[in-house]
Amino acid sequence: MARETEGRELDPERLARGVERALASPDRGRYFVAELGSRVVGALLVTTEWSDWRDGWFWWLQSVYVEADARRLGVYRALHEHVVRAARAAPDVCGVRLYVDRENRSAQTVYQRLGMQRARYEFFEIDFVAPHEPPQHGA
To answer: What is the CATH number of domain 2-113?
Structure first.
């Protein structure tokens, strides 16, 4: 996913440790997968963020991925709608958020079609692992 959407190569050992830690400790996040037949064709990770302003949890959708040959079949929609239904049913959840690469227009269109709106907030970070690289416009 990182290579496809951001042109980024991830450290496979670090990635494996991160996934293993999330799987071993549900307070770090929960994975949801979509299957076609017996094949996993899509997945996403839900992590949480406390909002004192709203006295509730935001569920963050992360590591969203659908296999190329399963796209446009409703795989992401099914994952998204399942998570949103679960979030709405939880009394302490105040909303669902995600971040998307600003150049990934097709993903942005999908999220908007599913009822998500651009937030009023910009996203800033200090990344100690994968330093920020400016977008490559026209490269």
So the answer is: 3.40.630.30
